[in-house]
């Protein structure tokens, strides 16, 4: 098989309507009456860098019946019109399209089919659609808003509705499983046994042993390989999301987000069945329980006061005090090292009293108890495989229970029961090119831990605020270096001759500032005004800009905020004194040329030490550590912290001039987290010493969102029937129909099937990323992408096709 991709550039605006496909015959997957649409979404700032993704979405009904039988429904909400009458009225296919006619009808009509029937639904005020006008959302809203509205109303679904649901399942076919719950696809090769016989973890060691081509690929933590160009691009391409910053926020239950459909859980974590994950199944904990209630379903399958872990370990407890642990000694030999402490129960399981493990016997809540118990029995999360363990060429846990890829060392997750995989001292010697080297040079951590709001390095260097925007412009030298890419000499027009060197020399030693005399290239342009960078030597392009908090607060529109070089007191410097070759301000904030010339590609190394040739980073100013020879970065730059008598410096908190400590910012994050943390804005000092412009090349995140039609909000009733409709279709949506005994049908995405979208489908997901290397300043184009799946062994037969617009 091969995949052919054809790109066509169009100028059609996105449309908020939806059309029905596959109304005459079912697809090979058993789907019919499908809705196709395009969803343009801004990614949430709290989880990923701001970006936009365009998804094609297809929701279909699923049935074992042949769709033509559906055509026998009575037409009650539309007007039937024959093809002959349409042609006699000179109706065009474009008009049928504007009336939301099914695409099959439009194609037949356009192809000249003589006998056909179109049922016009467009005149009804309840927005009916379908081949016989049998469906309605009872809303004129933009289709993605309808989907979002249905998912929003899932919050607070009553627990007793679980009796109507068996959770979403992956059918295992002829493979025997005997799991506590029917399997979620994420539970296959997830590092823990979910089937009693371990069938869900069979052959998974091959992924653990897999290595990728380091010259062209990035290895995800689970062993998947992706193109290295997709690493750190603000969108997760690894199924476990480890090519990006990993923050374990659960956002899937109430969000229709296609990222959730292919999202894996971290190794040994519990899957909520919708893309959300928790460390272990728990109950009665809003922070660590599944909103889908799959963990509650899990415990409903067990005996009272009993916890089942990894399908074969049974733990009894009373009032948050564990009593005993029973296990199959063949499956879990690591808990029976001392035979004198082991007894046998009526099910022929080996049992030990909990106090023989010398652990804390009481816990403050159920969540903390289950977390500790899981850590205790972690050695038994996988079946013992002697054929592999005896010849382990990877990293072996001290008790011999697991043979782990060395990529899992220092990855933030304890895979061994004693956590020795997280306390190795040789992780910098592993020759893993993407690992992040901590400032102490003693530890190299997995790159997914960078900027995850946890100090994994121990010195805070992995949480440095500059990492957050490292690849917001994918064509910067810092991003090339971080992604281990060879340099590509690309630039946008706004970067050309803007008086800031942003591209390293090419083969001819030319940069983006070569052959740019000041007399011909104005520093004061549409591209440079208020772009947060001094493009003019005197900084006049950044005067009176909203982002310059200190200048706006203390100075007029023709002067810059400045700390006097002599005493560190604040003053205002006229633009005539800026860029005149005389240093008047602390850090040479008025004379920026020196650090630019000597450190052209370190855009945040712009503070020049007093009476020195040294330039330091913004994050090194006022950080309770001397970085300049004269210590002016501490004693003068922030003299209220170091007044010569007693230091008020706290390396973990930023102290404002009024003596109060900010609870929202630290020294490392003060320029990004909250610039208004201090009443006098002193936490924003020197944050403008940055030569990275806010202008960006055109990418898909520059495409404007589709204008939305007026939204008819979906109101939620408190009746159980209305609660049922929100819950009933799982990860699908419901559409009202009088032909259904329930009054509605479920429509599923291609990842699910069944009349309730209750079964997960085996599938291949295709993600295309479009990037351009130049700016589109005129009319924004849209793109048509034609996809052809071709069987190429002899006939070059197209076995499947689709198009994205």
Automatic annotation (TrEMBL):
Disulfide bonds join 177-195, 189-204, 220-238. Keywords: Disulfide bond, Membrane, Repeat, Signal, Transmembrane, Transmembrane helix. It is a single-pass membrane protein. CDD domains: LDLa. InterPro entries: LDL_receptor-like_sf, LDLR, LDLR_class-A_CS, LDrepeatLR_classA_rpt. Residues 1-17 form the signal peptide. This is Uncharacterized protein. It comes from Adineta ricciae (Rotifer).
């Amino acid at each position: 098989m091969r995949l052919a991709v054809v790109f066509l550039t169009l100028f059609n605006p996105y449309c908020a309507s939806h059309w029905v496909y596959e109304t005459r015959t079912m697809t090979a997957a058993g789907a019919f009456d499908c809705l196709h649409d395009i969803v343009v979404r801004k990614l949430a700032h709290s989880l990923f860098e701001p970006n936009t993704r365009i998804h094609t979405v297809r929701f279909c009904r699923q049935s074992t019946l042949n769709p033509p039988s559906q055509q026998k429904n009575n037409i009650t909400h539309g007007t039937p019109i024959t093809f002959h009458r349409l042609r006699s009225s000179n109706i065009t296919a474009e008009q049928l399209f504007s009336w939301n006619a099914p695409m099959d009808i439009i194609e037949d009509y356009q192809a000249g089919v003589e006998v056909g029937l179109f049922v016009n639904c467009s005149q009804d005020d309840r927005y009916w659609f379908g081949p016989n006008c049998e469906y309605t959302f009872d809303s004129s809203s933009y289709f993605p808003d309808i989907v979002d509205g249905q998912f929003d109303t899932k919050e607070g679904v009553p627990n007793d509705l679980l009796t109507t649901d068996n959770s979403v399942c992956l059918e295992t076919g002829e493979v025997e499983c005997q799991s506590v719950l029917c399997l979620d696809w994420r539970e296959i090769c997830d590092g823990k046994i979910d089937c009693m016989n371990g069938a869900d973890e069979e052959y998974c060691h091959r992924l653990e042993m897999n290595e990728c081509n380091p010259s062209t690929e990035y290895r995800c933590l689970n062993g998947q390989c992706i193109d290295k160009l997709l690493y750190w691009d603000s969108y997760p391409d690894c199924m476990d999301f480890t090519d990006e910053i990993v923050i374990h926020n659960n956002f899937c239950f109430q969000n229709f987000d296609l990222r959730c459909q292919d999202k894996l859980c971290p190794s040994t974590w519990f899957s909520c069945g919708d893309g959300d994950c928790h460390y272990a199944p728990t109950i009665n904990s809003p922070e660590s329980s599944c909103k889908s209630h799959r963990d509650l379903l899990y415990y409903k399958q067990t005996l009272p006061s009993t916890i089942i872990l990894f399908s074969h370990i049974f733990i009894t407890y009373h009032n948050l005090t564990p009593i005993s642990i029973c296990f199959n000694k063949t499956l879990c030999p690591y808990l029976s090292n001392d035979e004198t402490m082991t007894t046998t129960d009526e099910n022929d399981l080996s049992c030990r009293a909990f106090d023989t493990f010398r652990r804390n016997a009481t816990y403050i809540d159920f969540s903390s108890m289950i977390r500790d118990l899981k850590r205790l029995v972690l050695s038994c999360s996988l079946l013992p495989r002697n054929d592999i363990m005896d010849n382990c060429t990877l990293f072996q846990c001290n008790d011999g229970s697991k043979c782990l890829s060395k990529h899992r060392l220092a990855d933030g997750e304890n895979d061994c029961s004693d956590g020795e995989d997280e306390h190795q001292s040789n992780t910098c010697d592993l020759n893993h090119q993407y690992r992040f080297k901590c400032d102490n040079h003693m530890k190299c951590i997995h790159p997914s831990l960078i900027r995850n709001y946890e100090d994994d390095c121990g010195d805070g260097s992995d949480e440095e605020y500059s990492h957050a925007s490292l690849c917001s412009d994918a064509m910067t030298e810092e991003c090339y270096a971080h992604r281990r890419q060879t340099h590509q000499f690309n630039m946008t027009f706004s970067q050309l001759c803007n008086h800031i060197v942003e591209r390293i020399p090419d083969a001819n030693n030319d940069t983006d500032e070569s052959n740019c005399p000041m007399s011909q290239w104005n520093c004061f342009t549409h591209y440079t005004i208020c772009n947060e960078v001094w493009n003019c030597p005197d900084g006049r392009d950044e005067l009176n800009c909203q982002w310059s908090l200190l200048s706006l607060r203390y100075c007029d529109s023709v002067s810059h905020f400045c700390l006097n070089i002599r005493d560190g007191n604040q003053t205002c410097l006229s633009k005539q004194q800026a860029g005149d070759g005389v240093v008047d301000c602390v850090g040479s904030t008025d004379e920026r040329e020196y650090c630019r010339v000597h450190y052209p590609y370190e855009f945040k190394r712009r503070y020049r030490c007093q009476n020195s040739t040294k330039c330091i980073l913004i994050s090194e100013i006022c950080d309770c550590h001397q970085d300049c020879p004269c210590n002016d970065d501490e004693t003068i730059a922030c003299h209220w912290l170091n007044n010569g008598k007693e230091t008020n410096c706290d390396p973990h908190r930023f102290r404002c001039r009024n003596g109060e400590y900010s609870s929202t910012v630290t020294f490392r994050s003060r320029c990004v987290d909250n610039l208004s943390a201090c009443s006098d804005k002193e936490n924003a000092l020197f944050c403008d010493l940055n030569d990275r412009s806010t202008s960006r090349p055109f990418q898909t995140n520059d495409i404007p969102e589709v204008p939305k039609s007026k939204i008819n909000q979906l109101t939620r009733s408190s009746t159980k029937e209305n609660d049922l409709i929100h819950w009933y279709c799982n990860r699908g949506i419901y559409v009202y129909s009088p032909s259904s005994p329930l009054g509605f049908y479920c429509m599923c995405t291609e990842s699910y099937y069944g009349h309730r979208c209750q079964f997960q489908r085996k599938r291949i997901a295709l993600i295309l990323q479009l990037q351009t290397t130049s700016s589109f300043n005129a009319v924004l184009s849209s793109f048509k992408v034609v996809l052809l799946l071709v069987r190429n062994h002899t006939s070059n037969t197209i076995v499947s096709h689709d198009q994205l617009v």
